[in-house]
Design goal:
The protein is α/β, with parallel strands linked by helices and 341 residues long. The chain is 30% helix and 12% strand. The strands form two sheets. An eight-stranded parallel beta sheet has the order 2-3-4-5-7-8-9-10. Strands 1-6 form a two-stranded antiparallel ribbon.
């Protein structure tokens, strides 16, 4: 796994309303960026454990169909479709989740109709996280709230976001959504922590830190200074939640045998913040062609299997303890999202 690149923190502090992120692909090697996209696996491996009743996949995406929900003109990637019907079949009907949280994929920009459509069809078994601009109308927020949207996401990763929202704009949007009880979801890299930390402390909403804040898992927890800063931040205010998702992204491997190096980070978050940790599959993971270096199987496949994510990540991240698993998949998600059961 290659070292994360670095860029000046000044790149992330701009007074303009629209902020163009650095064009360099950071931890995504340029030589891989032209490889074809990898389609999600339609056949999840059988689960070796039982998901608790009411389990929620707290991080997945719905993409397309493109004839109804086209990609945004600004999209930096062109993934395969992953419709709500497909996601329901795989995650609920076959794997056994009770429901899921549809997180707006950056490829759809700020047109959240794909999320709203999915929620309208899921009859209370799905909640949503959207992407909005500062000029979003209160009536539109109320309309999305009524179908189950409960958060706004901002991505600070140049390989998926062509424009990154400045912190002052995020704060103003957070003030707009706070009366609805929504949260702010932030996906960022260690290089932006100096900007993220004061922002997170000042936000008037609950905050989700996506993918554990993307620590460098090659540096052990006990000596990982960045991760220690995240822990300090988590203890500094109420309402910070953690998604312990995507071991394939940290290890750049689709092979489950390479994922245990990430587990100490999830276990540490669970030990410090047991009531604020959620988990999910990240299905359909559209950027695996640029993220994954080591594929699984022969010939190598860069797309992780969803059953492997459950068996070799979600279950061991809960220490293979059914009560901890229930806390992470049933109790904690319902602190943020409305579900019928």
């Amino acid at each position: 796994m290659q070292e994360l690149c670095s860029f000046e923190i000044s790149d992330f502090v701009l007074p303009a309303r629209s902020w163009t992120a650095p064009t360099r692909l950071c931890d995504i090697p340029e030589l891989m960026s032209a490889e074809p996209y990898v389609k999600q696996d339609p056949d999840p491996a059988p689960l070796t454990f039982t998901l608790p009743q009411g389990a929620i996949d707290s991080h997945m995406h719905v993409i397309g169909p493109f004839d109804r929900f086209p990609l945004a003109a600004s999209s930096k990637y062109k993934p395969f479709e992953a419709t709500w019907q497909e996601q329901k079949e795989i995650l609920i009907d076959r794997m056994g989740f009770w429901g899921f949280v549809v997180v707006q994929a950056t490829c759809h920009g700020t047109d959240n109709s794909v999320v709203v459509d999915a929620l309208e069809h899921m009859e209370g078994r799905a909640a949503g996280v959207v992407s909005v601009n500062e000029d979003i109308a209160t009536d539109e927020l109320r309309r999305m709230h009524d179908v189950g949207v409960r958060g706004v996401r901002f991505a600070f990763l140049p390989h998926i976001a062509s424009e990154t929202t400045p912190p002052d704009v995020i704060l103003r949007i957070a003030k707009k959504i706070a009366p609805f009880g929504w949260h702010t979801d932030l996906y960022f890299l260690p290089e932006t922590f100096e900007v993220m930390e004061p922002l997170i402390r000042s936000l008037p909403t609950p905050v989700i830190i996506d993918h554990m804040g993307r620590p460098d898992v090659k540096i052990p927890v006990e000596s990982n200074e960045y991760f220690k800063k995240l822990l300090d931040l988590g203890a500094s205010r109420e309402g910070i939640f953690w998604k312990v998702t995507s071991p394939d992204r940290y290890t750049r491997s689709a092979r489950p045998e390479d994922w245990p190096i990430v587990l100490p980070f999830a276990h540490t978050l669970l030990r410090h913040f047991p009531g604020n940790v959620i988990n999910g599959t990240d299905r359909p993971r559209p950027n695996m062609n640029t993220v994954i270096v080591t594929g699984r199987g022969n010939p190598p496949n860069k797309m992780p299997n969803d059953g492997d994510i459950a068996n070799f990540w979600i279950w061991p991240s809960a220490h293979k303890d059914s009560e901890i698993l229930r806390q992470m998949l049933v109790v904690n998600p319902r602190k943020l999202y409305p579900f019928k059961a």
